[in-house]
Amino acid sequence: MPDQLTKLAYQTMQQGRALLGVTHKEVSTRLMGLLAPDGTPKTVPIPPELLASLRQAMDSLHERDWQEAEQGLYPPSLLFDAPWLDWASRYPMVWLDMPSTWSRRRERNVRDLPSSVDLDNYPDYYLQNFHHQTDGYLSDHSAALYDLQVEILFNGTADPMRRRMLAPLLRGIKAFADRPAGQVRVLDLATGTGRTLRQIRAALPKAQLVGLDLSSAYLRQANKWLSQLPGELPQLTQGNAEALPFADASFQAVTCVFLFHELPGEARQNVINQAYRVLEPGGVVVIADSVQLADSPQFSAVMENFRRVFHEPYYRDYISDDIGARLAQPGFEGITAQSHFMTRVWTARKPR
Ligand SMILES: C[S@@+](CC[C@H](N)C(=O)[O-])C[C@H]1O[C@@H](n2cnc3c(N)ncnc32)[C@H](O)[C@@H]1O
């Protein structure tokens, strides 16, 4: 059972992560203002009351993260799991990458992708530099920086936010409690570099895990991270979440973290329909993504700034989208949603 000292260590570490993230963004924004002023986006001012309520929501997220570890949903060691040395060695690359980000921003060039990529293999909406990312999602360079960039962007809360899908996932697969744990199959859509699968592996050490993503470069990075873990290596498959290469009813759970805000509405619906198809009756889907205007109107300025600072072409549409209605379309039932800091988590069940 984790003790108060460990809790203090966790809280202190999270404060340190937040400080590092805020400092990095402050310094890089000033540098951009000096060196690339015409690329600097105009942001909405964040009033002190909003900052205070963001801090409060962040504290609640950490408290929930701590409590769920204490309840045994996942090992407390997961709270401290981060590749610090690796990130430290990659950090200079984040700075070296910035000038090309600034120039794309200045030139409003959002389709600056590696020439080696066969564009016919991807849906058109995907062929962009999301968050002005060098090479979009389509190179090892991009995959090498992604986790660290997300760590900085969310001030160290990315994993605590991802972990909020674990409680509903564990609750959902209780429907299959009569099966040996090794026969439960969980599919993580848009698995990226595997950070979500890493959280799931810690909570479900015996389950069969499968990760799918459109980017083979990101899957290569996921393979590197995940092969360091004990237990069976998750199966990693390159593919489009809108047309899953899996049989009907072949999974007991489907998860999807931080994908929906990067999809046009029609693609969001296609992904939900596919999740429904590959789930066994009684199976659970858990989707985590940005909070939305309807559930978190107090954070609307933060959502607006996110859209202005990063190239996120579908975000404005996403924050007004009714994901509950989309889940109901193919027939999902028991649809619930909860917000944790900047993340909203939807859970739903395919009827038996
Ligand atoms: C913002 S990242 C999220 C990655 C990961 N889930 C995480 O928590 O960090 C979005 C991911 O979605 C993938 N992606 C985007 N559209 C996709 C699609 N239609 N099918 C499969 N993967 C997709 C991208 O390649 C990228 O890895």
UniProtKB/TrEMBL annotation:
One of its GO terms (biological process) is methylation. Residues 186-283 form the Methyltransferase domain. One of its GO terms (molecular function) is methyltransferase activity. It comes from the Bacteria. Keywords: Methyltransferase, Transferase. Coiled coil: none annotated. It holds the Pfam family Methyltransf_25. Transmembrane segments: none annotated. InterPro entries: Methyltransf_25, SAM-dependent_MTases_sf. This is SAM-dependent methyltransferase. It comes from Cyanobium usitatum str. Tous.
